[in-house]
Structures
1.
Amino acid sequence: MAAHVDSFRQQFRERLALLRPFPGRLEFSCRLALACTLTTLVAEIYQTPDAALTAYVAFFVMRRDRMESVIISIVLTILISLLVAMLMLIAMAVIDQPLWRVISITVASFGLLFLASASKLKPLAAIIALIVGYGLDLLSDAQAGELATRGYLYAWLFVTIPAAVSITLNLLLGPPPRRLLEQAIAHRLSRRPSRKA
């Protein structure tokens, strides 16, 4: 019984250690909250559907490092533009056949999630798989080609709105990589036990 209590206390201490503040955590949290708020605001102004999904994408494009966030946002916008073009081609073939639509969702999701574990697309592949699955699922509601096209343009906006907000916020408020590195080094050195001569 005592061993079980000690194990529980050890696990509790480990979980509590994850919540300890570190340099830049509050600043990043505020920047991420502002990005989600602005993304939702833009989605509501332009009346795009699923503002919650658009705000969710902000979690994937925001990073602590300013340049990493900007690069991920630009790359994700380019990739989603190519994927929407590819989805429109797939949609023409499967729009009237539910079985092939489900198969195409499965194959595309499996392929992209495989890329998440086997390539350098790791930070982006999961959100791309989500958007591809969502885009192909939109075909079930589309009665005409025009509605399907509008759905794909909305799927494109789901990524480009948070990417544009992320780029703007990070260029205006994001910390430079050098400052983050200096803070991380100073934090590690302050936690290092001092050696007595």
2.
Amino acid sequence: MRVATGVPGFDALVEGGLLTDRLYIVSGPPGSGKTTFASQFVTKGAIDGQTSLFLSLHETEDELVTDMTRFEFGFDKAVGSGRVKFLNVFDSEAKRLLSPSSRAGGEFPDSVENMTNQIVSFVDNKGIDRLVIDSAMLLEYYFSDELDHFIRFLTALKRADATTLVISEMTDPTSYSDEHYLAHGVIFLHNYLEDGGMQRGVQIIKMRGTEIDSDIHAAAFSDRGFRVDPESTIGE
């Protein structure tokens, strides 16, 4: 089963949508559209009657809603509907959810499993269909000294019954990191100056279970958010 992303033109590149309950990485340099892409993703979920959890390291709910009001895809209405649960990692509720301390009685063997079980349980118990983590820096914040913990966390997160997007700040699509190898799919958003203007593009680096090409397809911002032209390819 596949789910629509809510990003016009993108789903044509991935056989109609993302395979459900899988982990995807959305990478790209600052300003390339990653957070907008993720916001359209959870908005589409709300429109389709699904519930989403948006975990953010960078912004509060008010800040993100304000940022997205410049577009007309309805993010503010999705949040207002209650279908999008937003948590900033420094809020008290998120701290309880992500606390790496082991629970009393030794229910989980270490902090990684504790945190993973808390997130997976939250997703399952709250009926979360779509999960966004903005960004991979959030995970590195908790596991900065233990690369093995970071890898184990992402691996375990893949068992959650939700279609998951993890945003990753990466400027070079040829420089892969651990999350790219672990994910079911990797989407790279390009932006660079060319001929005196900003050129934007989307490239599917990896997508298990889906026939893709490796071309960079033209993309742009419009009043309805981030959009892709699946018929147009560009060079770097």
3.
Amino acid sequence: MTSPTAAVDLDDEVVAFGNIVRKMAPYDHVVSPQFYTKRFAETLLRWLESEPDWRLKETVLYKQYELGFTDFTDRGEICGLWDASVLARLRDLVSRAFGVSVSSRINISAHKLVSGQHASVHTDNGPDATHRVVVQLNRGRADDEGGNLVLLSGPTPTSMAVVFKQVSNSAIGFRIGPTSHHAIGRVKAGTRFTIIYTFLSDAASDAKYDFFVAA
């Protein structure tokens, strides 16, 4: 059994998520320059780079490689990702950042985009999720390599409002709703990795989602 002291230490070893800034345009979102500790970010990025079991997913809106972490609970080097005390701290930080209480049911997934892949403008709006946090991990991506996360004020590409540079270990969180238009520019070179935390709503069924529970 893990002792309370060890759990607190694991929080400190995984989560940084500091200097959070909340912005209201084009819709409610937060940004942070450092989501994980430097050590854990490096460990996780190395794991993403070496993991062979990515699944290609194609829809009308996007084409990308995905994986869900409930399939990898035996991977001890990244177990801090879904530790209940780590998720409890994250839930608390996200709740304070947005001024509302978010769910303790948290889906964690990873996305990988390579050359030619992108995501068209969409909102993710629906009854199943309330907030999302996107963590960027990479070895350094130049502005001309594509793949930037974009927030838009409307449903068309001409409504572009905010373009985020792909600074590794930075995070963007946003409230999901009918106006949460966002997109990912087409990747022109290299590989774009992100970790996606989705806070599920009460309407989301246990049968439909794999998720971890915050303490």
